[in-house]
Amino acid sequence: MLNGYKIIDADSHVIEPPAMWGQYLEPKFKDAELIGNPVIVIVGKSLADGKIEVRDRKSGSKSEVPIDEALSYLVGIFK
Fold first, then answer.
1. What are the Cα distances from residue 12, in Å, to 6, 16, 75?
2. Alpha-carbon distance 6 to 4, whole Å?
């Protein structure tokens, strides 16, 4: 729980070990997007700068959000 919000991964189950994606998943599926999720949160290279990327699938817009503001930003999107 973070700031009173429960955090659950997209498919609501135990998060797989990180090695699973690099070792066991076919390369063509590695960066596949989940159909039906309106917002995509990407924790990637920008994490080194203290930011995450948030993409709106409908509009195609992208935003880099500081980690300490990420939860309130995401909550604001869904209000």
1. 11, 12, 18
2. 7
pLDDT over threshold 80, residue 62: yes
- Indicate the helix (H) or strand (E) that contains 65: strand 62-66
Residues in the chain: 79
pTM assigned to the model: 0.57
How far apart CA 4 and CA 9 sit, in angstroms, is 16
Identify whether the C-beta of residue 77 lies closer than 8 Å to the C-beta of residue 39.
yes
Question: Residue by residue, what is the 3-state secondary structure of 6-53?
Answer: CCCCCCCCCCCCCHHHHHCCCHHHCCCCCCCCCEEEECCHHHHHCEEE
Tell me the pLDDT tens digit for each residue of 34-53: 667 788 888 888 999 999 99
